[in-house]
Amino acid sequence: MKIEKLPSGSYRIRKTYKGQVYTVIFDRKPTQKEALQAMADELEKVQEKKTSMTFRDAAEEYIETKRNVLSPATIRGYKSYMGSLSKKLMQKNVHDVTALDVQSEINRLSIEHSPKTVRNYHGFISAVLSVFYPSLKIYTTLPQKVKNDPYIPSGDDIRKIFECANGTEFEVPIMLACYGMRRSEICALQLEDIDGDVVHINKAMVQDENKEWVIKTTKTTASKRDIIVPVELADRIRLQGYVYKGHPNSITQFLERTTFHNYCYNRETDARTHENIERALSRDKV
Questions:
Q1: Do 232 and 179 contact (CB within 8 A), yes or no?
Q2: Which of 5, 40, 156, 219 is the most buried (most CB within 10 A)?
């Protein structure tokens, strides 16, 4: 491959590939290594351009290729993201998408969504482009993260919850939650996962893309763990023959009803309780 100097002072390299001549121009004389890399990049772009695929098609194909390795909840999230992305981006040829297009999409999403949600959208868009348009360089400015300031329920908050849960189907789940279990983990727990007073946590109940509740493994290896609970609690679970027969959202709904009930009895004090407990306990990350 020859490096030619042009009358303008620029340098040109040419390569014939499958009967087509490809040219790359430099404003200075490139090294042989730089010339080879530039031509390789040019040929890669040409090959990419030959594929006619919208971003929507690319996103759907990306989801399908990841279906067997990603959590059902993650797949459901990706599907929901596609419903919120602009028609302009979704209908654009994936190889015509530019870094500016991505930044514009993020700017639009930032108006109505939290910084964390916007980052999730950007992660999805970037993942799709990294597979179907790997040569595209993205330098997106994302919204500033908001510091999470979780509310820790007070002893009085917990006491009120236990009073309402006493004797109901929610008593065992609430007790297990006090030992560090997520609601999704509680709903997936089976009798065989309890060995004496040791609870083996290795799965979770989540919603798939069809909003059906399914059992999956925990999201990370760190989420697989053993906890020790009082023998009385373990015996109670074995005696009733199951842990909990509902789904994660029913636990959240119980907590919402409980805090609203307390609010009705003491409007001035428990309005804060209703708001804070719901925010602290109704979300579940697996």
A1: no
A2: 219
